[in-house]
């Protein structure tokens, strides 16, 4: 979907220059929570932008070292500092980069990871609401040892490294911080970002209602393309909201399409189809279970499975579009997928999400792909879901990956392990629901790998699978914590899984946060 122009709020749009840091989306989400619109652009695209359209700039963290940064990168940022009279906030790598470019000295070997106390040296509008000492979250190996001239050191860490700077003498307020104000482990971080918005005099006009009104008018522009409009639906909140919005515009021409890849949770296809019917989105169901499962059989590598699933989805979509003579295709892509599929290589790709990677350029050339939610994060999609009055069933369902249970079977993929995963996950969900815990968690599921554990079942010794239970709390999937489930609930889950699934002899509970782990096992 090509918007008539990029979504933009005059006076209230922040450009986030992405150097590939793991928290870039978190910066973006936090700023949006505070009412400003954010646009993330990889650093190597900044030179092609009209930066004057933006009202402030945030320079993100990075997985690289400033000491090895390229000339191009430094030139691009030097131009931003020199030519743009915009308020700037540099975070972590952004802090070191600004310092280096302006003549400060950065060195390696001064790492700080995790919770670090910082001491505020000078009162400044950036630190309104902070006391003299606060905890922050750090994640860096290099540090600024000599600040640029014409700068003020506002704060230092407990290890005496520079933690915050204000750069004077440039035409707009420029601040840099070594810590990460965007992560929840910096308790006053949100306050700092809020202060920055105030200092930059940004208009706080970003709301989901505004977006909803705009998206309807953008979709209107496609009404004159004839034929049915196919909307891929999975029962998840993103695709349901997209289809529902498209229905408002295209009315009876909308054809929801539910592809059953055989990787759904127990009873899910039937339940989802019923629920979609109840909101007027009766889908055409394509049973493609065998097509998907036969191609996945024996494949060990998860990324390879994602590729196969993406490819197969595209084939099914294409066949359906051809048969129904449709030219318009709607899907529920959200902002993280759009930014990550930019393919600029600035961030370390951790996992390729199939929904974007899976729609190849030939499909986008052959059809018009409409992605009404492509500027939104999931919590913003949920806001829209409330505005349009979707039932709670859709709003509060746990997110479920596009490749479904295929990413929860570790090692060789086969139908037996898929079945174990499906049954065990159903047990985890139903016990959480019984104890009123389901709504409190982000995701709850079971994983099965190739490792075996010797057990005793019915007096006989037998080798069985190990099932790992993962229950996480999160607000956006970018960071996550495991749920401290009461022992009696864990006990009930373990007993029920080993009792009702014959070849499982051990249940374990995953107690690692994200990072360093991810939510899904592969
Ligand atoms: P990770 O495992 O990277 O997952 O911590 C973050 C969130 O993304 C979901 N996820 C996926 N969603 N296609 C999707 O549509 C995928 O390939 C995929 N992999 C992970 C995951 O369930 C979690 O909510």
Characterise the protein shown here.
By secondary structure, this protein is an alpha/beta fold. The protein has three domains: 3-200, Rossmann fold (3-Layer(aba) Sandwich); 208-395, Rossmann fold; 414-509, GMP Synthetase, Chain A, domain 3, CATH 3.30.300. 34% of the residues lie in helices and 23% in strands. Strands 2-1-3-4-11-10-9-6-7 form a nine-stranded mixed sheet, sandwiched between helices. Strand 18 (460-473) and strand 19 (481-482) form a beta hairpin. The longest helix has 22 residues, at 302-323. It is globular, with a radius of gyration of 25 Å. The structure holds xanthosine-5'-monophosphate.
Helix and strand topology:
Blueprint: E1 13-18, H1 24-33, E2 37-42, E3 56-59, H2 71-83, E4 88-91, H3 93-101, E5 105-107, E6 112-120, E7 133-140, E8 143-146, E9 151-157, E10 162-167, E11 174-177, H4 189-199, H5 208-220, E12 229-232, H6 237-250, E13 254-260, H7 268-278, E14 284-287, H8 289-296, H9 302-323, E15 328-330, H10 335-340, H11 354-357, H12 361-366, E16 368-370, H13 378-387, H14 392-395, H15 415-434, E17 443-457, E18 460-473, E19 481-482, H16 487-500, E20 504-509
Parallel strand pairs: 1-2, 1-3, 3-4, 4-11, 12-13, 12-15, 13-14, 15-16, 18-20
Antiparallel strand pairs: 5-8, 6-7, 6-9, 9-10, 10-11, 17-18, 18-19
The protein binds xanthosine-5'-monophosphate.
Xanthosine-5'-monophosphate (XMP) binds at residues 306, 350-351, 353-355, 399, 401-403, 407, 443, 477, 514, 518-520.
């Amino acid at each position: 979907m090509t918007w008539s122009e990029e979504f933009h709020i005059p006076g209230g749009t922040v450009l986030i220059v992405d150097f590939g840091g793991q928290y870039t989306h978190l910066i973006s989400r936090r700023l949006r929570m505070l009412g400003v619109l954010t646009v993330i652009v990889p650093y190597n695209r900044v030179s092609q932008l009209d930066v004057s359209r933006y009202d402030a700039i945030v320079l993100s963290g990075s997985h690289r070292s400033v000491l090895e940064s390229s000339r191009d990168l430094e030139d691009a940022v030097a131009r931003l500092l020199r030519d743009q009279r915009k308020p700037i906030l540099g975070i972590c790598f952004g802090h070191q980069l600004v310092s280096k470019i302006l003549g400060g000295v950065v060195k390696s070997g001064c790492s700080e990871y995790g919770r670090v106390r910082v001491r505020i040296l000078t009162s400044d509008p950036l630190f309104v609401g902070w006391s003299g000492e606060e905890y922050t979250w750090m994640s860096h190996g290099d540090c600024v040892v000599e600040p640029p001239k014409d700068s003020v050191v506002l704060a230092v860490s407990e290890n005496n490294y520079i933690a915050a700077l204000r750069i004077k003498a440039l035409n707009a307020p420029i601040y840099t911080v070594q810590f990460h104000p965007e992560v929840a482990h910096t308790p006053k971080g949100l306050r700092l970002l809020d202060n920055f918005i105030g200092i930059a005099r940004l208009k706080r006009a970003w709301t989901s209602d505004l977006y909803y009104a705009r998206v309807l008018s953008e979709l209107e522009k496609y009404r004159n393309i004839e034929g049915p409009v196919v909307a891929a639906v999975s029962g998840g909140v993103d695709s349901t909201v997209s289809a529902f919005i498209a229905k408002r515009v295209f009315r009876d021409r909308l054809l929801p399409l539910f592809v059953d890849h055989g990787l759904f949770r127990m009873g899910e296809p039937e339940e989802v189809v019923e629920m979609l019917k109840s909101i007027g989105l009766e889908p055409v169901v394509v049973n493609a279970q065998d097509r998907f499962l036969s191609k996945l059989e024996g494949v060990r590598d998860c990324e390879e499975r994602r590729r196969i699933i993406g490819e197969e989805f595209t084939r099914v979509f294409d066949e359906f579009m051809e048969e129904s003579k449709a030219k318009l295709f709607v899907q529920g892509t959200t902002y993280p997928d759009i930014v990550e599929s930019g393919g600029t290589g600035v961030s370390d790709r951790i996992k390729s999400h199939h929904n974007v990677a899976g729609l190849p350029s030939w499909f986008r050339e052959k059809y018009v792909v409409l992605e009404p939610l492509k500027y939104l994060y999931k919590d913003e999609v949920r806001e829209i879901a409330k505005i349009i009055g979707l039932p709670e069933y859709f709003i509060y369902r746990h997110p479920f990956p596009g490749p479904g249970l295929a990413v929860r079977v570790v090692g060789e993929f086969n139908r037996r392990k898929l079945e174990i995963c499906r049954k065990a996950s159903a047990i985890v969900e139903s016990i959480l629901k019984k104890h009123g815990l389901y709504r409190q968690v982000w995701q709850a599921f079971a994983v099965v790998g190739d490792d075996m554990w010797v057990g005793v079942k019915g007096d006989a010794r037998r080798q069985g699978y190990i099932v790992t239970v993962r229950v996480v709390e999160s607000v956006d999937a970018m960071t996550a914590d495991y749920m401290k489930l009461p022992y009696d609930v864990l006990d009930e889950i373990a007993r029920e899984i080993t009792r009702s699934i014959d070849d499982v002899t051990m249940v374990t509970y995953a107690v690692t946060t994200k990072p360093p782990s991810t939510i899904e096992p592969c």
